[in-house]
Amino acid sequence: MGHRLLLGVFFIALFCSPVHAEIHYTFPVQPSGSASFSRGGHRYPGIDIFCKKGAVFVSPVSGTVEDAQKEDIWDRNVNGPENKGGRWVSVAGDDGYRYYGSHLERIADGIYIGKKVKPGDVLGYIGNSGNSKGSPIHLHFGISRVSRPYSWKVRKGEIEPYFFLQCIRSNKCDPKKTLDGYANKGQ
After folding, report:
1. Would you tell me which of 31, 49, 65, 116 could form a disulfide with 37, CB atoms 3.0–4.6 Å apart?
2. What secondary structure, in 3-state letters, does 59-104 show?
């Protein structure tokens, strides 16, 4: 009787427990070797990744396209902060974080809200939409917790991305642990 109970518990644990797949990450600008970034530059946790026009913004992790702005509706005369990013895409990552990239020249074909993406899937082509017109080509990259409802203030970044990007680029640490550490500090 005891062996059957033990076998039953083993069966339930083996086949009924949630599967925790390993999370893979990739640098959000490709080709990554031509991209540069440094800390600072904003009054909130967000970072500008400088690159050549036409470089691609890719999903850094598997997830779902949460939101996108395909038209550049920023107007310098109005200067509404919610539109400063111009064209942008945000992905709700399977790791529990939202990844946002803005100042896109255009959003990639086939990108729509609800689309499942994998690390490295092309989301858009980097340009200078929104308030980046006239400045060096860059992707504004922000990380925040996946939450509902959310606003542009959250979307633009609430978790410092610098160490996450360094971690991915160096391949010497766990990006998820890096994010969790900064998210738990409350910045």
Report:
1. 49
2. CCCCEEEEEEECCCCCCCCCCCHHHCCCEEEEEEECCCEEEEEEEE
